[in-house]
Design a protein that fits this description.
The chain has eight helices and eleven strands. By secondary structure, the protein is an alpha/beta fold. The strands form two sheets. It has a six-stranded mixed β-sheet with strand order 3-4-5-9-6-7, with helices on one face. A five-stranded mixed β-sheet has the order 2-1-10-11-8. Helix 3 packs across helix 4, helix 3 runs antiparallel to helix 5 and helix 7 runs antiparallel to helix 8.
Length: about 240
């Protein structure tokens, strides 16, 4: 079994298609989506339908929640709020209902998936260091938990203490627990513009991260044509 873990797609259809094409070439057998299918970029409905058609375990991200609700977005940063207002108009009631019904946490095979953290999944906390990761580990009852949300691939390992190790290939060892951020398909923020996802090979107990080039010029053109903030087109090229 080889499982592709992907998320933070953020309505970037070109990146999503490129990642799924790459995964198919890597002999992936199953897919799990970490949420934030919509928000920021210009193809929310198409990305939602693409993921929905895959019928794979999917958890809810904060942008999925905000895009599918009708609450005020005033407290958000103005660029994200503008994109979410626009996204709400692009989705049908039925699509918004599908997003609204996504679960916060799921167990799949022998691991757990959540968009942000297991300790307070609906609070959308950001894990940026090992101290943040410690709070999660108290609530993690499987050996491995995958998450997203910060758009930065990271690997935290808990033995007698919690350490961060480079987000390269990770060999799963007995006696350790792993809390792994699988990066972002559609808006990476680690300085590398290419779409990011991970493959978990259950037989070999190995997780590898992959980076995939995509037609970013088309994505940028669509963002500008939709009247979304120009900054959103610029940041995807910078990986920020
Ligand atoms: Zn996100």
């Amino acid at each position: 079994m080889r499982i592709a873990l992907f998320g933070d797609i953020h309505a970037n259809l070109e990146a999503l298609e490129a990642v799924l094409e790459d995964a198919a070439k890597q002999d992936v057998t199953d897919y799990v989506c970490m949420g934030d299918i919509v928000g920021y970029n210009a193809d929310p409905a198409a990305c939602l339908e693409r993921v929905r058609a895959m019928d794979c375990p999917t958890v809810k991200g904060n942008h999925d929640e905000d895009a599918s609700g009708s609450h005020s977005l005033e407290s958000m940063n103005p660029v994200a709020a503008a994109a979410l207002e626009w996204t709400r108009q692009q989705l049908s009631d039925e699509q918004r209902q599908w997003l609204r019904r996504l679960r916060m946490v799921r167990q799949v095979s022998d691991f757990t998936v959540v968009h942000s953290t297991l300790d307070q999944p609906a609070h959308w906390n950001y894990v940026t260091n090992r101290f943040d990761a410690m709070s999660n580990f108290s609530y993690q009852f499987t050996q491995i938990c995958f998450h997203g949300h910060t758009h930065v691939p990271r690997v935290y390992v808990k033995t007698d203490k919690v350490v961060e190790v480079p987000a390269e290939s990770v060999e799963i060892e007995d006696g350790a627990k792993y809390f792994i951020n699988i990066g972002s398909v559609g808006q990476p923020r680690d300085g590398d513009w290419r779409g990011c996802y991970a493959i978990y090979d259950l037989e070999h107990k190995l997780i590898v991260f992959r980076r995939v080039e995509y037609d970013i010029a088309t994505t940028q053109r669509k963002i500008l044509a939709a009247g979304l903030p120009q900054m959103l087109a610029e940041r995807i090229a910078e990986g920020r």
